[in-house]
Amino acid sequence: MQKKLLMLLTTMLSMASYAQSNESAIVLELFTSQGCSSCPPADQLLDKIKKQYQDQNVFVLSYHVDYWNRLGWKDPFSNESYSDYQREYAEQFNSRSIYTPQLVVNGREHFTGSNRYKAEEALKKYAKSKSSNIIKVQGIQREEKAIEFNYSVEGDKFNTVTFAIVVSERVTNVSKGENRNRSLANTNIVANRVTTKEANGKIAISIPEWITNEDQLSLITYTQDVFLKTTGALQVKI
Questions:
Q1: Distances from the Cα of 181 to the Cαs of 24, 35, 38, 40, in angstroms?
Q2: In what order do the strands lie in the sheet with 134-142?
Q3: Fewest CB within 10 angstroms: 3, 140, 145, 159, which?
Q4: Residues 6+ positions from 80 with CB-CB distance below 8 Å
Q5: Mean pLDDT, rounded, of the chain
């Protein structure tokens, strides 16, 4: 029965086409870690924003960095490439160092991820802007080890297109490190991501082994200019 349901879902997804409007698109990228004692409040705020703005063009992603793993707890969602991505932002922001929790909004500003006031102000500010790129996704197929789809981007102001598979929520019991003996909830965890500079094509994203059939997955894709500023975004549930 489960296989039949999965086949039916895959067929429905492959027939569907998804496209964003040219309305505002707000992308919030939280660089976080289960090994950081200051991160749980930021994780909670990101989850609150996701739920509060679920019917609007607000897209949240949790990028788990790996540089806190040395303190005794290896974050199961951490990835060295996410730390490298954060360093790209540091270069654009002229920052000498990277930190957690860092919340980057539309690639244009950053602040401590638990700062509710700054997050609310940023959401109000970017709600007034229009997207300069429109992303379309179609033919989504979820296989056992990968998600495949076709895409296209309208507009010529982008430099990079990012495609991220995110897991809606996971709760982890942490036994070591700064958050030992705590149960941590993370939201829209980036499980894998690929980037391209092409305006259209076919993408295949590998599904990590730690993802289960019970996990609720989404595809979040967004365009950025040469300065990493967001120019459009789209989210599709898988």
A1: 41, 12, 15, 13
A2: 17-19, 134-142, 146-154, 200-206
A3: 3
A4: 66
A5: 92
Q: φ and ψ at 107, to 5 degrees?
A: 65, 10
What domains appear along the chain, each with residue ranges and CATH number?
2-237 (3.40.30.10)
| First and final C-alpha spacing in the chain | 19
Buried b (16+ CB within 10 A) or exposed e, 87-120: eebeebbeeeebebbbbbbbbbebbebbbeebbe
C-beta of residue 28 within 8 angstroms of C-beta of residue 42: no
- Count other C-beta atoms under 10 Å from residue 221's C-beta: 25
Residue type at 188 in one-letter notation: N
Residue 2: pLDDT band (50, 70, 90) is very low
**Secondary structure class of 173 (helix, strand, coil):** strand
Which residue carries 């894998």 as its tokens? Answer: 192
Neighbours of 23 (CB within 10 A): 11
Q: Which of 198, 195, 201, 181 is nearest to 228 (CA)?
A: 195
pTM of the entire structure?
A: 0.92
Q: Are 135 and 161 in contact (CB under 8 A)?
A: yes
